Amino acid sequence: MVKGLTGACISCPEGWAFPVRFAALTALTALTAAGDSICKERFEAEFPQLRALSTSIPTHGHLPWMEVAQFHGDESEKRLEILFEDATSKVLLCWNFLSKEWKGGRFWYLEMAGIGRGTLCAPAVCSKEEMETEIQRSFLAKMRQDQTATATATELLHWSDLSLDFVVIGVDGCGSTALHRHLRRHSQVAFTNFSVFNVDEDFFLQEMGRQTLPFAPQVERLRDFRAKLRQQKVGLYQPWIWTATTLLKALAYNRHLKVVLSLCDPLDRFEKRLHGSLPRNGSINDTKLKEVFYSLLKDAYSGPGMVRMWQKWLEVFGNRLLVVEKTLLSKATTFQRLSDFLRIRGYPKQAKFHRYNSQGNRSSSLCQHVDLVRELKERFALEYKFLNSLDAIRTERIQKRLTHCERPSVLGSSCVKERCLS
Questions:
Q1: Containing structural domain, residue 300
Q2: Per-residue pLDDT tens over the stretch 160-176
Q3: Superkingdom, according to UniProt (predicted)?
């Protein structure tokens, strides 16, 4: 892995180093302008070795993306792991490529009209224009393909090149909006806003969720964002990142990235979803309530699969992951933990941490159905066990499974996204 876009290799075999891929840009331009076909000469001289670090075109093997829907279950996850290992090993080997006359390559994604697409390692001196002209024609000639095909080349980098310090993730209804808003107002924190939807969430990483390697323009977009800041930590807020196994694999390659995960009482979370799914007008009879109740229990976010995903994030990130609990987001101690974790200055003593995007005192009639409440607690037993295993968020409410059905409501008005008034 790399520090920024150049520097020493952090998790590679001893002696490996990363070639300077951007600093020598002016030199590469000068070489191209001189008319010396150094790029093509070097590529053709080392073609057998470079081809071994590439994928065939057309290909059905490694691509810089894949359909996430294909990967579910243990066997599919093993296949996904192989794809990521293949992609990252090839880009690292390409960067560290050694020949008799030169060293260091660049890893490219090529798409050729009417022929196919794949990846190709080329000498570092090669530019995007040369990849789309001389190199693709040379490659197609050696592969006995139509040399008149037009090509588009995009450089591929490594996940550790992403200039992100942390991501905020969480389960819907567990306080991630409030967590994001309070972190956002800190002077030493800046959140990305590349693909913002519904005020807060940035889908920049979600859009990369089908890739096994990031494209250079994506990396440069983050670098440009950071360049405008004053020593601030760069964060990205998108609660549902935790549901994408591909993003877990990808972000795991960034050894400096931290994760903040917001969780809460599963029954309260479910009740909020139930309340939002019931008709707003007219009275709700028991039959309708139970119909909606059982329909919501059928999705992937109401079962043990959620716990397995959280456990995977904890296993991968270890002490680089901090879990916070919704009911503790109004306490200064929670944000002191966050400040220490992110290594930013503590919040002022007079700081207030208000509620955002809260249901408030509104609720469904679920609490009137003791049998349904009992059924939910049994269904969410694994979640309660998981929450109780985390010392920092093990509250009396979690330990005793005291949902709002058993405790007096102390919340005020409801609010959507914005700060609650009471």
A1: 160-399
A2: 999 999 999 998 889 99
A3: Eukaryota
